[in-house]
Design a protein that fits this description.
The protein has 245 residues and is an alpha/beta fold. It has one domain: 3-Layer(aba) Sandwich (Rossmann fold). The chain is 33% helix and 24% strand. It contains seven helices and eleven strands. The strands form two sheets. Strands 2-1-3-4-11-10-9-6-7 form a nine-stranded mixed β-sheet, with helices on both faces. Strand 9 and strand 10 form a beta hairpin. The mean pLDDT is 95.
Length: 245
C-alpha cells in the first residue's frame, strides 16, 4: 500500500451511528487499509451528489435496512435506490472496480436485470459456501479453498441471474452467493467484511428487524465464534490489493 493515493468510496445507508461506524471499521480491517483510506458517504443522511469516479480506487456498497423488493418504500428509500442505481449503472458501463455486499447484490443485480425475491432469504448465520470453477479462476478469490466460512443474513436474494453475470460462489440454501459483471464489478450475498464480533454487534443493533429468531441468538453466536473467517476476509484483501491506487 506504499503507492496508495486514492481512497475507496463506501456507500452506507444505515441510520444507526454505531452500525455505520462499525461497517466502516469492518471494511478497513478486512481490506488491511489504514484509517482514512476509505471515504464513507451515508446516503440516509444526505443526497449522494456528484461522484468523480476517477478520484477513487474503487467503490464499496455495504448492507442496508432497505430491500429492493420492499412492497412499500419511503421517499428516503426511493432516493437512495435511485442514486445508487444511477451510480452502479455508470460503474458497470465503465467496468470500474465495485464490490457490493448483501444489499449490494440487489443493487447490482437490479442494474443488470436480475430477478430478486424472498425465495432464497437466509436468517443471520455462519455458513459454508463453495467456489465453482469460475470462482476458483477469479483473481478476487485467489488463494481461497474450495469451501470457506462466512456470514449471511438477508430478506431477499437473486432468484434468476441474467447471462451478463458470472456466478463465482454458491450456497445450499441460497444458490447465488457471489457473481461478477464484466471484469471488475463484484457482488456478494454474504458479508466478507464481518467477523463474529462485528456480527454480534450488528445482531444486537438489529434485534427487532426480523433477521433472526431472538431465541436462537446464543446458538447463532456460538457457531459464529467457532468459525474461521480469514478466508472470507481474503476476498476484500484481494480486492484492495488489486485495485488500490
Amino acid at each position: 500500500m506504499s503507492t496508495y493515493t486514492r481512497p475507496f468510496l463506501l456507500l452506507s445507508t444505515r441510520p444507526e451511528d454505531e452500525a455505520a461506524a462499525a461497517e466502516l471499521a469492518s471494511f478497513l480491517s478486512a481490506m488491511g487499509l489504514p484509517a482514512g483510506a476509505i471515504e464513507q458517504r451515508r446516503l440516509e443522511r444526505a443526497p449522494l451528489g456528484r461522484v468523480d469516479l476517477d478520484a477513487y480506487s474503487g467503490v464499496l456498497l455495504g448492507g442496508s435496512p432497505f430491500n429492493n423488493t420492499d412492497a412499500s418504500k419511503s421517499r428516503l428509500q426511493l432516493r437512495v435506490e435511485r442514486e445508487i442505481g444511477t451510480l452502479v449503472a455508470a460503474i458497470i458501463d465503465r467496468d470500474l472496480p465495485l464490490l457490493g455486499a448483501c444489499y449490494g447484490i440487489g443493487a447490482i443485480g437490479t442494474a443488470i436485470g436480475a430477478r430478486l425475491s424472498s425465495r432464497y432469504a437466509e436468517d443471520a448465520a455462519s455458513i459454508e459456501l463453495s467456489l465453482n470453477d469460475a470462482g476458483a479462476a477469479d483473481p478476487i478469490l485467489a488463494g481461497l479453498p474450495a469451501r470457506f466460512s462466512t456470514i449471511v443474513g438477508h430478506k431477499e436474494a437473486v432468484e434468476h441471474l441474467p447471462d451478463a453475470a458470472t456466478v463465482l460462489v454458491t450456497g445450499e440454501a441460497c444458490p447465488t452467493q457471489m457473481f461478477r459483471v464484466r471484469s471488475n464489478v463484484y457482488a456478494t450475498q454474504f458479508h466478507p467484511e464481518l467477523t463474529a464480533e462485528s456480527l454480534e454487534l450488528r445482531l444486537r443493533i438489529y434485534a427487532d428487524q426480523g433477521y433472526y429468531d431472538a431465541d436462537e441468538l446464543e446458538s447463532i453466536l456460538e457457531t459464529a465464534y467457532a468459525a474461521d473467517y480469514s478466508w472470507n476476509r481474503r476476498i476484500l484483501e484481494n480486492f484492495a490489493a488489486r485495485y488500490a491506487r
